[in-house]
Write a structure and sequence with these properties.
The structure is a single chain. This protein has about 240 residues and is of the alpha+beta class. Helices cover about 30% and strands about 30% of the residues. It is built from 6 helices and 13 strands. The strands form 3 sheets. Strands 8, 9, 10, 11, 12 and 13 form a 6-stranded antiparallel beta sheet that branches. Strands 1-2-3-7-6 form a 5-stranded antiparallel beta sheet. A two-stranded antiparallel sheet has the order 4-5. A hairpin with a 4-residue loop joins strand 4 (about 30-35) and strand 5. Helix 1 (about 45-65) runs parallel beside helix 6. The radius of gyration is 17 Å and the shape is globular. The two termini are about 20 Å apart. The structure holds cytidine-5'-monophosphate. Cytidine-5'-monophosphate (C5P) binds next to strand 9, helix 2, strand 11 and strand 13. Its EC number is 6.3.2.6. GO terms for molecular function: ATP binding; phosphoribosylaminoimidazolesuccinocarboxamide synthase activity. It catalyses: 5-amino-1-(5-phospho-D-ribosyl)imidazole-4-carboxylate + L-aspartate + ATP = (2S)-2-[5-amino-1-(5-phospho-beta-D-ribosyl)imidazole-4-carboxamido]succinate + ADP + phosphate + 2 H(+). Pathway: Purine metabolism; IMP biosynthesis via de novo pathway; 5-amino-1-(5-phospho-D-ribosyl)imidazole-4-carboxamide from 5-amino-1-(5-phospho-D-ribosyl)imidazole-4-carboxylate: step 1/2.
Length: about 240
Amino acid sequence: MEKKELINSGKVKSVFNTEKDDEVIIEFRDDMTAGDGARKEVMDKKGAYNAVISAKIFNVLEENGVETQFIDLPEVNVMLAKKLDMIPIEVIVRNIATGSLVRRYPIEEGKKLDPPIVEMDYKDDEYHDPMLNRSLIRALDIATDEEVNILAEKALKINEVLTEFFKDAGIILVDFKVEFGKDKDGNILLGDEISPDGCRLWDAETLDMLDKELFREGKDSEVMDAYVEVYNRIIPDDEKVI
Ligand code: C5P
């Protein structure tokens, strides 16, 4: 599949057209950012680890009935995907209270959230991804009420599938962020990526962090070891490509 013109360059991924107008190539770069892009470093092979982890997770989700944009992983850091018209909403699911939740509300750190919290934020770094509600989503004209229901339903299904998937790898899925978009027929599909960049993953025994929170806390030298640990635990030996 030939890479054509660049159509979007995000903080850590670049999206290119292909010769098919309903497919794109997503290149996972080695950049790592925090604070809405305020801090940026390059981490060797980070793009490849995130691409392979995302591809594995998208496959697991497809096997469990969640439609995603994933088609193929032609290179370790390059994903071939269905072209989506992305909805500018970050859907966050939380199983354990931590992060911005405990900074914003009087909820005890580590509290188990059952049922999980589903949060929707407006994806816009300039505005620091402010939290949305239904009337704000309507006013911004970014999704219909029915679509909001679909996003929440899909995010909760993803949570169910991935909580079990990570549990089998000795990892607690604390919280995560997903993004969705519409394909050419208007179907809502999971897009973007699911990797340690957008999830909080804790070792089930030690509760050690295995995700980007390490970078947010300035522990840059520990980040890649954590990502490699996640990769080693969830990618079976015969599927390892890095
Ligand atoms: O920081 P906060 O507690 O709101 O993050 C909740 C979850 O959503 C975390 O797993 C974090 O990695 C993810 N997230 C993200 N991108 C954002 C905001 C949050 O991936 N812009």
